[in-house]
Design brief:
There is one protein chain. By secondary structure, this protein is α+β, with helices and mostly antiparallel strands. The two termini are about 35 Å apart. Strand 3 and strand 4 form a beta hairpin. Helices cover about 30% and strands about 20% of the residues. The strands form three sheets. A four-stranded antiparallel beta sheet has the order 1-6-7-5. Strands 2-3-4-8 form a four-stranded antiparallel beta sheet, sandwiched between helices. Strands 9-10 form a two-stranded antiparallel ribbon. The protein is built from eight helices and ten strands. The longest helix has 21 residues. The structure holds a DNA duplex.
Length: about 260
DNA sequence: TCAGTTGTTTATAT
DNA sequence: AATATAAACAACTG
């Protein structure tokens, strides 16, 4: 699930409930989500410290404290919840951070990513160094430059975290669909107007998705119909096409996003 | 039983 | 060198 809007939602949960509060206890229910770190090391490093204003880079939640910094990635099935201690735990709650009045629960069914601990700012920066500019912060000129300097399919570039950080499979398909760009198109083969559309639609989609904390499955969006077996394009009614691109299921409208554009 | 899944990294091939 | 593909990670669903 988690793409940039989801992680932004998790950042808000942490900001609302965690900031300024002391970490009373860290309970590791499944050490399998910890990277290069034992459960007792995590607890010892964080207990007694207070969360500070959290940040986010792409899909990485950066949970600063007045001590070390926690880096959380949510893979394909992660979640961060605020709960009272009496609420029953979820089967896939992996780590609990107990604060005054409640606890933050890191939940993740598949455990594809996990939690890192960075002792200092330099370690934080090294960990996120491979990521490109955040999709919410990147300016048009840099977005354009980074897309056209590579030769791969537009969709592959959009989901490449080193090009721009935060977009996943759903968002990339949604942006291409709204911009009328065929996902297999090479960015440098698009004219300036089409590339402008890509950037504008990325902004539009994110602006709607971030407050929702997810890519909203509205029926007028590609996201809202893509799981239907007989899905039709919400814009023109053409049956949607699907095929794998770079290992991920790609959904597009053959009418609105024709191949061999321009040329 | 088998294929598929909204993420990322690594190895391998081109 | 850059790019493309598959597999692996883990757990679950249909």
């Amino acid at each position: 699930m988690p793409e940039l809007p989801d992680v932004e939602g998790f950042r808000r949960v942490l900001a609302e409930h965690g900031v300024g509060r002391r970490i009373r206890r860290v309970e590791v229910l499944d050490p399998g989500v910890l990277h290069d770190l034992r459960a007792d090391e995590l607890a010892a490093a964080l207990t007694g410290h207070r969360f500070r204003d959290p940040d986010r880079r792409g899909k990485v939640l950066i949970a600063y404290t007045d001590g070390p910094t926690l880096l959380l990635h949510f893979g394909m099935s992660g979640d961060l919840r605020w709960a009272t201690p009496t609420e029953p735990r979820h089967q896939h709650d992996r780590v609990l951070f107990a604060l005054a009045g409640g606890e933050l629960r890191y939940r993740d069914m598949r455990k594809l990513q996990g939690i890192w601990l960075a002792p200092d700012a330099g370690t934080v920066e090294r960990t996120v160094a491979r990521l490109g500019p955040d999709a919410l912060a990147i300016r048009r000129a840099e977005f354009d430059q980074r897309l056209t300097s590579r030769r791969g399919a537009v969709k592959s570039l959009l989901v490449d975290q080193a090009v721009v950080a935060g977009l996943g499979n759903l968002l990339a398909d949604e942006i291409d669909w709204r911009a009328g760009v065929n996902p297999w198109e090479t960015a440098r083969d698009l004219d300036a107007d089409r590339r402008r559309r890509l950037y504008d639609e990325m902004r539009t989609v994110l602006r709607a998705a971030v407050p929702a904390g997810r890519v909203p499955p509205r029926r007028a969006w590609l996201t809202g119909v893509r799981d239907d077996p007989d899905a039709a394009c919400p814009r023109c009614g053409t049956p949607l096409s699907r095929r794998r691109l770079g290992g991920r299921m790609t959904v597009w409208c053959p009418t609105c996003q024709p191949e061999h554009r321009g040329s």
